[in-house]
Amino acid sequence: MVLLSTTGRGVARAERDGDGAWRVERALEGARVNALAVDPSDRRTVWAGVKAGAQGGAQGAGAGTGGSSPGGGAWRSIDGGRTWARAGLEGVTVKSLAVDPRDPRVVLAGVKPAALWITRDGGGSWSELTGFRAARRWWWWSPADPPGLVPYVSGVAISPGNPDVLVAGVELGGVHRSDDGGRTWVGHLRGADLDCHDLHFHSRDGDWVYEAGGGGPAVSRDGGRTWHHPLEGLNGRYAMACAADPERPEVWYVSVAPMLSWRAPWRVPLAHHDGHAQAGIYRSTGGASWERLGGGLPRPLDHMPYALVTDPERPGHLYAGLAHGQVWHTSDHGDHWTRLPVDLGGVRTTMVVA
Q1: pLDDT band for position 54 (cuts 50, 70, 90)
Q2: What is the domain partition of the chain in residue ranges?
Q3: Cα separation of 143 and 122, whole Å?
Q4: What pLDDT does 126 receive?
Q5: Which residues are CB-neighbours of 232 under 8 A, at least 6 positions away?
Q6: Which strands form 209-213's sheet, in the order they lie side by side?
Q7: Rounded Cα–Cα distance for residues 25 and 14 (Å)
Q8: Which fold has domain 30-54+70-343?
Q9: Collapsing DSSP states into helix, strand and coil, what is residue 271?
């Protein structure tokens, strides 16, 4: 069992051995790692997206430092996140990644400024999906990731049923869809959230797509063509992460915090105030109203769950990675929770099961 997380200063790797003991290692230290994506056909292969200008060595924890070199671009590990090597897009800030479930050589990268790149040979070469340029709008902007207000592609996903169907979310610019492999794109899809933070197809059922956004969660049941924005039952609307059960696509989860509070400056969402996030994890089943999960989970969560991830091999299991590095786990769809005996040092954008 391996968990990988972006920490803001590299990647944390937590592995549980056969005796149940956990060990935490560090990799890509000094690099601003924005995204992680696992190859569904071989979970030892993991991709990372790095901010341009950051510093990070090509060797992972336990394998020496390997020196440092300019950051940015795509990186790949073939040993479950222990060691890493460059995989193209050097000098580009990569904000999101998706691996094609049918062909692991195909990887989609969302970058900053907002654009999409694709490799069809496992990172040997990359080309821009120039059709996405037609979707750009003058009003796109991002209040996050300074300097400036430059928008970026915060989420990308490839349908497990049809590799030509792609979705891309922009912070702040909405959710967009292509049904021809990225040659042409439909502009922002009504019902999806404009401020996209997290975006996923269901791992097996391409009819289901999930989004967490600054205005709340959204879901599509027809492959991303139409969207619904369910809010009933939530205490707040500022959603950071979403995930769905691998066996039951109608069971999905979202982490949410109130937008503002007297504790927080007006321009900074409460979710980003460690120690005062007032967040919760919610579950929706079969279209029912959101249910706030407890069962041992602190209420409220003082640190934002920036990452929610399900285990594709174990239905019912969900992991929540909190901003300060705690990881909480449930094996029964969120009814009961336990805190794992690990400290990742921080979970800032993404966590994956490798």
Answers
A1: low
A2: 30-54+70-343
A3: 33
A4: 98
A5: 289, 290
A6: 196-201, 209-213, 216-220
A7: 6
A8: Methylamine Dehydrogenase; Chain H (2.130.10)
A9: helix
